[in-house]
Structure formats: C-alpha cells, structure tokens
Amino acid sequence: MKYSRLTREQLEELHPEFINFLATQSITASEWEEIKTGKPEVAEQELDVFSDLIWEGVLTRVTYLENISAQQMHLFHCEKKEMKLISVRVHNPEVDLQTELGFGWFKKNWQSDFVEYLTASKAYTEDPNLDKFKLIEQGAEITRGALFQWFAEIVEI
Fold it and tell me: Which Pfam family would be a valid example here (predicted)?
C-alpha cells in the first residue's frame, strides 16, 4: 500500500465509487460478501487498492496545503515542478493561531516584531503525490489557498 487505508467514514462516503471499483473487476455485491467472509485478506487488499486509487486522484489535484499550529503556519503551494512554502512564526507564547482569538491577534499584528516570515522552494522527489501525502500525514490540510495567496502578495514569493 502506497498511502493509507481510507477511514470507515471515508469508505462509507465513497460507497458508490467503491461499488464502481468492484464492478470494474467484475465483482458483484454477492461475490463481495463472499470475499469479505471467506477471504478477508483479499477484501483487505481490495480496500487497500481502492484507497490508493482515491488518494492518487485527490493528491494529483492538490494545489494548496496548510499546517497551522499554535505559533506557526506552514502554507504550501504545490506547483508543477516544485513546492513553495511560506512559513509564519509568532513569537508571542500567549497567541494560539488555532483559536479565533489568536488568529484575530495575528490579523492585527502581522507586521509586528512578534511575527517572522520565511519563504522557500523545494523540488519534488520522484513522486510529488507522495511528498504531498507526507505533509498531510504530518497534519497539513488541503485548502483553496486563500492564506497562501494573501501572504504571497505581502512577502513577494
């Protein structure tokens, strides 16, 4: 398995797609039930293959990722050949960027000496989707990139 197994909730949400996936392999609903009970290891393999297919499709379309913690924001723009990063660090231990109050403080004080910015670019490894997936495993979330775009104008990345 290249990525990770989709959660039960995700699999339930993707039930129609999973049915189509089984149909492409000529597996009927009754055959799937037999596989689940009689050959659970085969059922597990099918779930793994389906999960990887879904992840591959999602990761191919990812353009922006954000990883926001109490004092830091890592904003990624996933371009064709490289990933650009805008890193924001708040040097005020009383501010938690994950809260509405903390982010409100940041919006008012983003130009203060308590806020530090860093930009970087990094070429992908041989597998850009795996690079993106690793960031997601570390806590990044897929976004539309509004924060990255706003900061990109300010820090001129």
Answer: DUF6495
In which region does residue 30 sit, left (phi positive, over 0), alpha (psi from -120 to 50) or beta (all else)?
A: alpha
Phi first, then psi: what are they for 70, rounded to 5°? -55, -45
Distance CA 123, CA 108 (A): 34
In this structure, what token pair is assigned to residue 20? 């189509």
- DSSP class of 88: E
Place of tokens 């706003």: 150
Q: pLDDT, tens digit, for every residue of 98-114?
A: 999 999 999 999 999 99
The full set of domain ranges for the chain reads: 8-61, 64-155
Length of the chain: 157
Q: What is the pTM of this model?
A: 0.86
**Tokens found for residue 86:** 């805008």
